[in-house]
Amino acid sequence: MAKFNEFKNLSVLYAEDNTALREITEKTLQLVVGKVYSVADGMQALNIYKNNPIDIVILDIHMGSFSGIDVAKKIREENDKVPIVIVSGSIATEDLLAACKLNLVDYIHKPIEFNALVKVLYSAVDRLQSHGLLLAKINDSLSYDYFAKAFINSKGEKIALTKKEIHTMELLLSNRGQMIPYETFSEELNDVMTDGALKNIILRLRKKMGDDSNLINLSKIGYSFI
């Protein structure tokens, strides 16, 4: 699934009240995205959305008394940018009219085919990118662009990173606030990483960051990005 690397840092909220369909689609999503929040009804979906960082929302249109349309309406009251996808076996005219008002990325039919799922994920990534939401703050003048795989400075200029610098930076960001042992870097980078080689990568990242105060080294243990 290396071709879907652009999805690995995304968190997806998926709501479906049919257990069998939910479990199948959840497993499919787990193959391509970093984090999946899978729930069985609309109220659970809204609660997860309010209490977790969610990049993309995928909602079954009919889920008991609190539908996917209801969830989408609540989300849109406070956020008009997060990509929302509606799923349905068939959409009635009144449902379609309601969905059209919610600035959706797309709607897809059940059962969800893999290619259709990947297509809407790419559409959602395009939406996130257009709103500048695929960026992780590094410091006051620098961000990391997950899609471009580069640092972006305050002038909008890209600062290129090597493959190992990208992997190292994304490992630090995906475990932000946690200490990552030296051994983990070797495992994740799929390389026999000597202390000297890792220090060289970190040194290059520090230079490109400028303000590197968020990158902490604990001697003989590892690194953390806060």
Question: Can you offer a commentary on this structure?
Answer:
The chain has 226 residues and is of the alpha/beta class. It folds into 2 domains: 2-130, Response regulator (Rossmann fold), CATH 3.40.50.2300; 135-225, Arc Repressor Mutant, subunit A, CATH 1.10.10. It is 42% helix and 22% strand. The protein has 8 helices and 12 strands. The protein has helices at 19-32, 42-51, 68-78, 93-100, 114-130, 163-174, 182-188, 195-209; strands at residues 11-15, 35-39, 56-60, 84-88, 106-109, 135-139, 142-145, 150-153, 158-160, 180-181, 215-218, 222-225. It has a 5-stranded parallel β-sheet with strand order 2-1-3-4-5, sandwiched between helices. A 4-stranded antiparallel β-sheet has the order 6-7-8-9, with no helix packed on it. It has a 3-stranded antiparallel β-sheet with strand order 10-12-11. Helix 2 (42-51) packs parallel to helix 3 and helix 6 crosses helix 8 (195-209). The longest helix is centred in the middle third of the chain and has 17 residues, at 114-130. The two termini are 29 Å apart.
